[in-house]
Amino acid sequence: MAAFKRIVILTGAGLSAESGLATFRDKDGIWSKYDISEVATPEAFARDPAKVHDFYNQRRRGLRLAAPNTAHLALARLEREFPGQVTIVTQNIDPLHEAAGSQRLIHMHGELLKALCAHCDARHPWHDDLSTEVACPSCGRAGGMRPDVVWFGEMPYRMDEIYDLLAQADLFASIGTSGTVYPAAGFVREALTAGAHTVELNLEPSEGTSLFAEKIHGPATQVVPQWVERLLANAR
Ligand code: APR
Fold it and tell me: pLDDT tens for residues 95-149?
């Protein structure tokens, strides 16, 4: 294993699956129960905000019972102990990376424990249910508060920073993601162009598995701590 200096780690719903949070596209996943066009687009919110709020309110309540698992904890340890730079770019809107202690973290799809006002663009930490009655703590207007998550058709957050990090990475890892949603699914190509070593850690081969130089398949709570241990042992 080469001595890496700048690691970028993309994570997805599979990382939080063993913390009891449903993934999207697995059997019994969220999209097998809900229609994306009714709950996860700006058009859906304009058409029926109550239905969208209900969908995210349920997911927000579900976070109360979730705790970081050994995969989240191993990634936080990697950031602490690795002599080089480790950055996590997560598609997840749950707070489990933070709860595990990760600091260098980019929520490219937003955060469920934040609310965004469509009237004044203010963001606020938010743990309770949202509704069209809720007034924005900044501008005082109601009807515009929405979960601070990136819906289909919207631009993910901090993309310039993410592309800069990928361009300088010497190791790119993708953990617990199906590789079906862009722009995240295209990050492996960016990393390959930068000459980085690429590794996929996932329960099963993802859509983009053929692009990865190394593939490690199994439950995140098993394969991620082992992978982190090897990286740290190699960096000593
Ligand atoms: N350990 C490791 N991987 C797992 C585990 C596990 N315990 N359980 C499931 N997986 C893998 C699945 O095999 C699948 O490839 O995690 C992946 C989850 O894929 P998706 O459900 O498609 O989730 P994700 O890739 O994060 O979705 C991307 O799509 O719906 C939107 O905005 C949403 O951020 C999300 C984006």
Answer: 999 999 999 999 999 999 999 999 999 999 999 999 999 999 999 999 999 999 9
Single-letter amino acid code for the residue at 65: L
Length of the chain: 236
Q: For 19, phi and psi rounded to 5 degrees?
A: -100, 5
Q: Is 127 a catalytic residue?
A: no
* Helix, strand counts (H, E) of the chain: 9, 9
Q: What share of the chain is helix, strand, coil (3-state, %, to 5)?
A: 40, 20, 40
Residue nearest to atom 26 of ligand 1 (CA): 12
Q: Whose CA is nearest to atom 28 of ligand 1?
A: 181
Please list, in sequence order, all residues whose beta carbon lies within 8 angstroms of the beta carbon of residue 58, skipping any fewer than 6 positions away: none
- Contact 168/196 with Cβ under 8 angstroms? no
